[in-house]
Amino acid sequence: MTIAEMQAAKGKRKLTMLTAYDYPTALAVDRAGVDMVLVGDSVANVVLGLESTREMTMDQMVYHAKAVRRAVKQALVIGDMPYEAVQKDVAASVKNARRFVDEGGCEAVKLEWFEQAVAVSKEIIRAGVPVMGHVGLTPQTADQQGGFKVQGKNAEAAKKILAAALALESAGCFCVLMECVPDRLAALITQKLGVPTIGIGAGPSCDGQVLVTHDLLGLFDRRLPKFVKKYETLLSRMEEAFGRFREDVDKGRFPDKDHSYSMSEEELRRLEHES
């Protein structure tokens, strides 16, 4: 999947994106034919147990990007710019975006909307790194938006999100992700933008959809947002498997002969004799 192929898909077929932070997950996502793999800063919550994505560092994000890159052969790999990577100045933001490409092997970065998002996006793109914009609910700055709530529910707030999406497209972003916005607002933005839109909690009219893989698989013990469709309940299945292992060891059923290595009687006698 290239950015050109992705953009050509607008209006023709729906795009898909899932998160991955490690080799085996990225391998499964890629083999499933998903178009894009996002090395998301959501790793902070669903893997590292942190309260906020703002706690992620560039070093950590590059580390996870490298693991994902080793697995992915077909999908477009996108690195999620962490909060610290864009808050200092434009030059630092560009340097950090290049790290995702040069060290992490990503082909693009995602940038959440903030006051300097347009200026930063322009400079990153000028430096040769494609940028996916992100509007609506922005987890890194959710505290400034009244918490993790739907954004753009009234006309005034909706106009600001639309303006932000248009500004990011004008800055050169190849795609715009919309999170937690009303479906009719997402449909309007999708219609007005020439680049694809990816939705998460933004209704069915977007050009593509993304979910956090750990949410989709039921791998995280928390109350899920309304927009998440849980396709599996792997956490409970893992707990069951771990419990069976513990019981087998406790009862002496594991390891058995089939899961042990043997030694010939002759060599055993030699060992006992020489010991």
Largest sheet at a glance?
8 strands, parallel, barrel
For this structure, the CATH topology of the largest domain is TIM Barrel
**Gap from first CA to last CA:** 63 Å
Strand content: 5-15%
Top-tier CATH class of the largest domain: Alpha Beta
Q: How many domains, as an integer?
A: 2
- Our count of helices gives 12
**Shape descriptor:** elongated
The secondary-structure class comes to alpha/beta
Helix content: 40-55%
CATH architecture of the largest domain: Alpha-Beta Barrel
Number of strands: 8
Radius of gyration: 23 Å
In round numbers, the mean pLDDT is: 97
Which descriptors would you attach to this protein?
single chain, 275 residues, alpha/beta, TIM Barrel, 2 domains, eight-stranded parallel beta barrel
Overall description:
By secondary structure, this protein is α/β, with parallel strands linked by helices. It has 2 domains: 230 residues, Phosphoenolpyruvate-binding domains (TIM Barrel), CATH 3.20.20; 38 residues, no CATH class. It is 43% helix and 14% strand. The protein is built from 12 helices and 8 strands. An 8-stranded parallel barrel has the order 1-2-3-4-5-6-7-8, surrounded by 6 helices. Strand 6, helix 9 and strand 7 form a beta-alpha-beta unit. Helix 2 packs across helix 4, helix 6 packs across helix 7 and helix 7 packs parallel to helix 8. The chain is elongated, with a radius of gyration of 23 Å. The chain starts with a helix and ends with a helix.
